[in-house]
Design a protein that fits this description.
The protein is an alpha/beta fold. Helix content is 29%, strand content 18%. The chain is globular.
Length: 296
């Protein structure tokens, strides 16, 4: 089993202490987001690897050497300011943490996500080309793999369109991103790929590969029996199956393009209902919960 920590919220940024408490306890409980009384219990003895997905890896630094499972980091670094990402720490601090993590887990176990790319009057095509090149330059020697994706039409995106003011991509936009991003990555010894996108940009030098491909899963775990991940958000996703232990509407970054948050009042309620000593990320087990052991 590969644990996804997490696509539903940023556990690393806001709930690292809880995660380490669960790791030390030997199991974690996950409430089904669609059937609330159903709870999956996952024992860490059944976990082959952990994928940390985060915009702020800083809180995990002090715990890294305590984790014995194979680790892969997906760290999102975008060039947006507080208008789009209100609660992300300064990017310089995040980049500093990325370099430290790379030294600990190894350069092949850290992927940067430049994700999602959106265009508007402020964040223009030229802005992104310059920002991506600078990111590659800064991370030269610490990162070898960068994944990009383009903004999708999520509920939260529509709700925030007055702020985002999204401009539609043209074929020429995709071409210029493909050419320039490929050149920047190559210049600094990196690969660049899209994530579950119809525009895969391979004709411009992007590699075609899934984020957590069967070959990467084998490299992490030594196993080949992983099923394809069934993603509700993206039917084009061909990653291997991962088990997400997060909960929607619990990330306080409040990014305006987020797919996992769609009710900021609920986020605050959930955050205030977090107990670092609970087996669940949000709230506690109830007497009528149905607990099932998940082994894969």
């Amino acid at each position: 089993m590969i644990l996804n920590v997490s696509g539903r919220t940023d556990i690393v940024a806001f709930y690292s202490e809880w995660f380490m408490n669960r790791l030390n306890a030997g199991f974690v409980d996950v409430r089904n987001p669609f059937f609330q009384k159903k709870v999956s219990r996952i024992y860490f003895d059944d976990v082959d690897a952990i994928v940390f997905c985060t915009k702020n890896p800083i809180p995990s630094l002090k715990y890294l050497k305590l984790i014995t499972k194979p680790i892969l980091y997906n760290i999102t670094i975008t060039p947006y300011k507080k208008d789009i990402e209100p609660n992300i720490p300064p990017k310089g601090e995040i980049i500093k943490a990325v370099k430290e993590i790379s030294k600990i887990v190894g350069i092949d176990s850290i992927y940067i996500r430049y994700d999602p790319i959106l265009l508007n009057e402020k964040y223009t095509l030229e802005y992104h080309i310059k920002a991506f090149d600078n990111l590659c330059k800064i991370l030269n020697g610490y990162v070898k793999h960068i994944i990009i994706s383009f903004i999708d039409d999520y509920k939260n995106v529509r709700n925030n369109n007055g702020i985002l003011k999204i401009k539609e991509f043209t074929k020429e936009d995709f071409k210029q991103i493909g050419i320039n991003f490929s050149n920047s990555a190559k210049k600094f010894g990196m690969t660049v790929q899209t994530c579950s996108e119809e525009e895969n940009l391979t004709e411009y030098g992007f590699i075609k590969q899934d984020c957590i491909s069967p070959s990467l899963a084998f490299k992490l775990t030594g196993k080949t029996n992983f099923k394809r991940w069934t993603s509700r958000n993206n039917k084009n996703c061909n990653c291997v199956n991962m088990v997400d232990i997060g909960m929607y509407n619990s990330c306080k970054h409040f990014c305006k393009y987020c797919y996992a948050n769609y009710d900021e009042k609920k986020v605050i309620t959930n955050f205030n209902n977090h107990n670092p000593n609970s087996s669940l990320l949000i709230g506690n087990l109830e007497s009528d919960d149905i607990i099932q052991i998940r082994e894969y």
